[in-house]
Design goal:
By secondary structure, this protein is of the alpha+beta class. It folds into three domains: about 220 residues, 3-hydroxy-3-methylglutaryl-coenzyme A Reductase, Chain A, domain 2 (Alpha-Beta Complex); about 110 residues, Alpha-Beta Plaits (2-Layer Sandwich); about 55 residues, Helicase, Ruva Protein, domain 3. It has 18 helices and ten strands. The structure holds (R)-mevalonate.
Length: about 450
């Protein structure tokens, strides 16, 4: 986000964001090109004029038969840590992009978004499943910890040269579940703590752990089981804080109550967190990051106190509403498919992120802002009106409307929604049927 400080740019950004959602797709693309400095050939990829060759997909996964395209939108009006940023979102769910942009606009007018990173270390786990002599194993491994760290770093010279590498190895002692004889065996787990720089680091840490396996067996005189990263990356966290100044007290109180609901009820917390991840997963997908890893880590972290809890919190502080999020986020701007997938490369360029930490902070912010939008709607008008109004497009398409018919079907569905407070696919089919009957009788 380095060049987002220039005053001219700030004014230009505001101008280009104005009426963005009402502009034609060509116009939107032109505005994105100007804000993000995209080349004509990158624009051709985004617009679909240059199609993606299955040859690239062939190298990403197995048994390839083609691509599965998702809509790519951009969230507008985001100003994070004082810098404007356009956020690409690859997602199929109606209303996420609109809600995110509307909430970001609200914050731009009435508040601020601040973000931070805490820690840089990912975790690789090496398991000693059934320890024969626990004191001996711990003491021998502890005595040769530095040797193991050196050996680990020797496997990843490139990362070490970039300033990263294994920083520490910690030993954890775990009880195995009680066995049939009623006794418990001990399990040891070594945590290999590594700074992966701008990579998510899964491949790196898995290789390091496997490379250490024979040495760990030799030193401990025990058998090693699994060697694999942990997705609960609580050593690499990203956080954000949103403040809405002088909020309408009714809305502020409603959002606070919504948070309290999630705080005391895991059934609500699951939906609360899903709404927050609605703002994070689409950025992860657009940038080629492993959203399953993030989801697993976030949900595990949400349960760290022995109960599933919300990953955001909202409180009234005087007349202001203050929201916070802090979650494990180990993302990559290099490695994986981030540089191999043409869309991911463009998405990273669009946000002008200079590091994986930058990207993680943006994701923390989009999650918190998306959660704010959902809670505001739920605490005021409810979710149905806004969501279903946008969902009319999906219903029209599912009913079989052609491009030139979609607008009419959506308009009619909106009228029914206003009157009856509900719409479904049968309504869309009926509208389409009568539209076509009218057209053929002309
Ligand atoms: C829907 O995708 C997300 C919400 O259910 C989130 C929430 O309830 O907070 C609206």
């Amino acid at each position: 986000m380095g060049s987002f400080t220039d005053q001219n740019f700030e004014d230009r950004f505001k101008l280009l964001m104005k009426g963005f959602h009402k502009a034609s797709r060509e116009d939107r693309l032109r505005r994105v090109q100007e804000i993000c400095g995209l080349s004509d050939s990158e624009l051709e990829i985004l617009s679909g004029k240059k199609t993606l060759s299955p040859d690239i997909a062939e190298h990403l996964i197995e048994n390839v038969i083609g691509w599965f395209p998702l809509p790519l939108g951009v969230a507008t009006y985001f100003k994070i840590d004082g810098k404007e940023v356009l956020i690409p979102l690859a997602v199929e769910e109606t209303s996420i992009v609109a809600a995110l942009s509307a909430s970001a606009k609200w914050i731009l007018e009435q508040g601020s978004i601040r973000t931070y990173n805490r820690g840089r270390l990912i975790i690789g786990q090496v398991q000693i499943p059934s320890v024969q002599n626990i004191e001996k194993a711990i003491s021998q491994l502890g005595a040769r910890r530095n040797e193991l760290i050196e050996m680990a770093n020797a496997c990843i010279p490139g990362l070490v040269a970039r300033g990263g590498g294994v920083r520490d190895i910690a030993i954890r002692e775990l009880d195995q579940p009680t066995n049939e004889a009623g006794s418990t065996n001990k399990m040891l787990v070594l945590h290999v703590l590594c700074d992966p720089c701008d990579a998510m680091g899964a491949n790196l840490i898995n290789q390091v752990c496997e490379a250490l396996k024979p040495k760990i067996e030799e030193i401990s005189e025990e058998r090693v089981g699994l060697c694999i990263l942990s997705n609960l990356v609580d050593g690499r966290m990203a956080g954000a804080e949103v403040v809405i100044r002088n909020i309408d007290p009714k809305i502020g109180r409603g959002i606070e109550e919504a948070y309290l609901f999630a705080q005391v009820d895991p059934y609500r917390a699951a939906t609360h967190n899903k709404g927050t991840l609605n703002g994070i997963d689409p950025v992860l997908i657009a940038t080629g990051n492993d959203w399953r890893a993030v989801e697993a880590g976030v949900h595990a972290y949400a349960s760290r106190n022995g109960r599933y809890e919300p990953i955001t919190e909202w409180k009234m502080v005087g007349s202001d509403l203050v929201g916070k999020i802090e979650i494990p986020l180990s993302l990559g701007t290099v490695g994986g498919v981030t540089q191999a997938h043409p869309f991911a490369k463009i998405a990273l360029k669009m946000m002008k992120v200079e590091s994986a930490d930058d990207l993680a902070r943006i994701c923390a912010a989009t999650g918190l802002v998306q959660n704010l939008g959902a809670l505001k709607a739920l605490a005021t008008v409810g979710i149905v009106q806004g969501h279903m109004n946008l969902h009319t497009a999906n219903l029209a398409i599912a009913a079989g409307a052609a491009a030139h018919e979609i607008g009419f079907v959506r308009e009619e569905l909106s009228q029914i929604l206003k009157k009856e407070k509900r719409i479904n696919l049968s309504h869309a089919r009926e509208i389409l049927k009568s539209l076509r009957a009218d057209a053929s009788s002309l």
